[in-house]
Amino acid sequence: MKKNKFKPGVKITIFFVFFAILFFSLGLWQIERGQAKTALLEEYEKNTLEDPKEINNDSKKWDRVYVEGTWQGANQILIDNVINRGIAGYKVLTPLRLSQTDEIILVDRGWIKRNRDMMDLPDVNIKDVKEKVSGILESPELGLVLSDELVSDGWPKISQTKNIDVISEEYSDEIYPLILLADPISRYSLEYIKINPTNMTPVKHYGYSAQWFLMFLVLCGMYIWYGYKKNEK
Known about the structure:
Elements: H1 10-48, E1 53-54, E2 64-71, E3 77-84, E4 87-98, E5 104-113, E6 130-138, E7 157-159, H2 164-167, E8 179-182, H3 202-229
Parallel strand pairs: 1-2, 3-7, 5-8
Antiparallel strand pairs: 2-4, 2-6, 3-4, 4-5, 6-8
Helix pairs in contact: 1-3
């Protein structure tokens, strides 16, 4: 019996090489993403254990800082559609005018439940008093928005996003480029929701990586099988 030769053909070989490189590259990319997410989570957890430092120009995302200033209760923004324990509500962003620089920083005071009548906004009133506030700096992404009108008219305003670039457009003052998620120790704190620094865990990335590598191995097996099967007499 004549031994089969491995001749899959030019077209099949081109197909194999293209998708083999693609699948293998995607597997490596997911591993890199998983490693990056692991480093991000480690940095975040480390920062949460540190004592807050006074905010400055070098402060960055996930840093624990403290600020001192005066609340500006007339110009608050409610972040819509924030679900907490299965209940719809708002995140409340309140401007705080910094004592040292006169700059405005938006402080996330926490979550508050939405009233049954959406036109009846919850009571988020706050006195314009001086206070020292500590917390973690964050920079939320724009995310998925379902409306062209991201921020409503009239104060307090309703926003469909927590993205600082969008929200800062509503103020005439200069706005600090990061949002401060306040520790739940202020007298004006609402219900605290811990930050989730990533929308996908490292484990999921590694799982996707395993799927891409499996597809790569299956493709290799099919290529070898076809190369011999095609030339059977």
